[in-house]
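Q: Please design a sequence for this.
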C-alpha cells in the first residue's frame, strides 16, 4: 500500500486511488494518551512515525506537538520505541493502525483518527514502474471496481466503523 504523492509520482506510476486514508494515533492501554479524545490532548505527547511518510507530516501539521516528532526508519522501529516507553504513540494510516494496534503492540489501542485527515485527499494507489504500459489497464480495473461499488463494499466490511473513533479538534 502506497500513498499517492506528487513527489513519488516523479519516480513511479500509480493507479487511480482505491482508498482514501485517514491518519490514526495508536498506543497501548498504559500510555498517558490511551484515553485521549481530542487532538489537543495529544499536544504534549511524545509521538513518532516512520521517516518519509504522510504520517510524519500529519504529526507536524495536524497535531503540532510541543515536542518534535521522533522519526524512525520504519514502523517496526516505532513499535519497539512504543513498547520500550520511549514514545507515547505512533501515527500511521488506518489500515496499518488496525494491524499494529491489535497484532504488534501488546494491549494496543487505537486512540483515534485525526479529524478531516481523509479530506486531505490522501489515497492509496497501486504502484507500478515509471511509464509502465500496465498503468492504464490497472487504473481501468480500479475505476471499474469503484464504479460497481466493490471498493465501497470492501471498505465498509473491513475498515469502516471497526473501532477507530475520530478525535475532536
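A: Design:
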Amino acid at each position: 500500500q502506497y500513498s499517492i504523492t506528487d513527489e513519488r509520482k516523479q519516480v513511479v506510476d500509480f493507479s487511480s486511488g482505491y482508498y482514501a486514508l485517514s491518519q490514526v494515533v495508536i498506543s497501548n492501554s498504559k500510555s498517558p494518551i490511551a484515553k485521549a479524545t481530542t487532538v489537543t490532548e495529544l499536544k504534549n505527547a511524545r509521538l513518532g512515525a516512520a521517516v518519509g511518510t504522510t504520517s510524519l507530516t500529519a504529526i507536524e501539521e495536524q497535531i503540532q506537538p510541543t515536542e518534535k516528532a521522533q522519526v524512525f526508519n520504519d514502523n517496526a522501529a516505532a513499535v519497539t520505541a512504543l513498547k520500550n516507553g520511549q514514545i507515547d504513540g505512533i501515527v500511521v494510516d488506518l489500515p496499518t493502525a488496525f494491524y499494529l494496534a491489535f497484532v504488534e503492540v501488546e494491549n494496543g489501542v487505537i486512540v483515534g483518527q485525526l479529524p478531516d485527515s481523509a479530506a486531505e485527499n490522501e489515497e492509496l494507489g497501486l504502484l507500478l514502474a515509471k511509464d509502465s504500459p500496465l498503468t492504464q489497464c490497472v487504473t481501468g480495473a480500479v475505476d471499474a471496481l469503484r464504479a460497481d461499488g466493490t471498493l465501497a463494499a470492501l471498505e465498509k466490511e473491513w475498515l469502516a466503523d471497526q473501532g477507530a473513533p475520530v478525535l475532536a479538534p
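Q: Thanks. Anything notable?
A: The two ends are 28 Å apart (CA to CA). The first helix runs from residue 6 to 9.
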